[in-house]
């Protein structure tokens, strides 16, 4: 088992869209509810500081490994996908250095049910962080994933998969990131 600490920076804004269940006020209209509660769409730590969900990074890496389809040398047509799905863990939720009370927002015209092309559209407001940087620690539990393979998949995840709302994996442009450095600890 190895760990790697990755310093990363944004290549595009990052927008979160966490589900929340904030109570509606009596006689509150849907638009007013949206305006009042949009900050609740942030993933935060116990002090209200915005973090990247660890699972978002893990899923981004697994999706990139699948998309790349890199074959494991000496193992026929076997690829790294299952190893990234089962043997790579992001240890914690990387902080972004922004409190949810200070986050910017973006207002978009979205499908009411979230399904593209389904009909009725409504205004939605989402938190957005234009520029960010953070540090994430990953545990790699199988030596099949070499340092070079992890770094290649990480770069592909940052450019082609991304994290958050309207990321490249879903046809968007947000949530792209690059690694500044990899600090390996064997």
What brief labels describe this structure?
186 residues; four-stranded antiparallel beta sheet; three-stranded antiparallel beta sheet; alpha+beta; 4 helices
Quick structural overview:
The protein is of the alpha+beta class and 186 residues long.
- Shape verdict: elongated
CATH class: Alpha Beta
The CATH architecture can be given as: 2-Layer Sandwich
Question: Residue share in helices?
Answer: 10-25%
Q: How many domains in all?
A: 1
User: Could you name the CATH topology?
Assistant: Alpha-Beta Plaits
Structural class: alpha+beta
Along the chain, the helix and strand elements come as EEHEHHEEEEEHE
Q: Strand content of the residues, in percent?
A: 25-35%
Strands side by side in the biggest sheet: 4-8-1-9
The overall strand count is 9
Low-confidence stretches: none
Describe it for me?
By secondary structure, this protein is an alpha+beta fold. The protein has a single domain, classed as Alpha-Beta Plaits (2-Layer Sandwich). The chain is 24% helix and 30% strand. Helix 2 runs antiparallel to helix 3 and helix 2 crosses helix 4. The protein is elongated, with a radius of gyration of 18 Å.
Question: What's the topology here?
Answer:
Layout: E1 2-10, E2 14-15, H1 30-37, E3 49-51, H2 54-68, H3 81-87, E4 88-90, E5 95-99, E6 104-111, E7 121-129, E8 133-140, H4 147-161, E9 177-185
Antiparallel strand pairs: 1-8, 1-9, 2-7, 3-5, 4-8, 6-7
Helix pairs in contact: 2-3, 2-4
């Amino acid at each position: 088992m190895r760990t790697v600490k990755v310093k990363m920076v944004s290549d595009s804004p990052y927008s979160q869209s966490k589900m929340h269940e904030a109570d509606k006020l009596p006689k509150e209209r849907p638009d007013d509810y949206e305006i009042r509660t949009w900050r609740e769409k942030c993933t935060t730590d116990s002090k209200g500081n915005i973090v990247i969900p660890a699972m978002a990074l893990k899923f981004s890496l697994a999706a990139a490994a699948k998309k790349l389809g890199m074959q494991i040398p000496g193992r026929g047509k076997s690829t790294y996908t299952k190893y990234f799905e089962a043997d790579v863990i992001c240890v914690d939720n990387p902080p972004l250095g922004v409190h949810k009370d200070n986050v910017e927002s973006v207002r978009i015209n979205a499908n009411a049910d979230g399904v593209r092309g389904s009909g009725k559209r409504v205004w939605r407001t989402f938190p957005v962080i234009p520029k960010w940087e953070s540090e994430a620690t990953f545990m790699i539990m199988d030596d099949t994933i070499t340092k070079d393979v992890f770094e290649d998949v990480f770069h592909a995840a940052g450019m082609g998969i991304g994290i958050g709302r309207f990321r490249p994996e879903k046809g968007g442009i947000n949530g792209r990131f690059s690694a500044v450095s990899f600090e390996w600890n064997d």
